[in-house]
């Protein structure tokens, strides 16, 4: 296990098999389950976390948000260390990227909902995707915004890439560093010219309230509901 802080709230974990054998393949957007029962846990706990990069057959990378009162996320953030062994279930999930090389794609996320989008963006960049790719992300501010540099690097590898980041409550340091594009909640009307292609596929992930907010805007902009694919972080709801 390799552990890398990505923001004040999000840390990534790189996991490799102890036997050195190849790991199970997966599609960008899927998740895996992690099984834990460290000292102090009364019961074995199972949590699902999205995979955050394209499959390489060698290992997995997940990113975990530290949740207040979250037993597993707190242990991973505060106690897990390099060399620890955890148990995993094979990757799964029916939310994953499925587009042709020329298909335009928009990836929308709120907070830690960017994790499956990172795997999708990584896959698009490494496959030489030729269609337009939009990365639209909403975060509280730069203190909790993870993977910004990685997104920038992946976007630079794509021939047609647009990024727009919204901070709800940016800090003065965010303003001085130019870490965001717009202040406030995600407003898709501001980027409407980038999302009008009738062939475009939209992938959304984040808290339920964010998902409902973003999906409503897409529909109001005339987007075909059949082109909107989503996964909620939290109780599942139909958007």
UniProtKB/TrEMBL annotation:
PROSITE patterns: FAD_FR. GO terms for biological process: cellular response to nitrosative stress; nitric oxide catabolic process. Keywords: FAD, Flavoprotein, Heme, Iron, Metal-binding, NAD, NADP, Oxidoreductase, Oxygen transport, Transport. GO terms for molecular function: FAD binding; metal ion binding; nitric oxide dioxygenase NAD(P)H activity; oxygen carrier activity. Pfam families: FAD_binding_6, NAD_binding_1. Gene3D superfamilies: Nucleotide-binding domain of ferredoxin-NADP reductase (FNR) module (3.40.50.80), Translation factors (2.40.30.10). The keyword Transferase does not apply. In the C-terminal section; belongs to the flavoprotein pyridine nucleotide cytochrome reductase family. This is nitric oxide dioxygenase. It comes from Klebsiella pneumoniae.
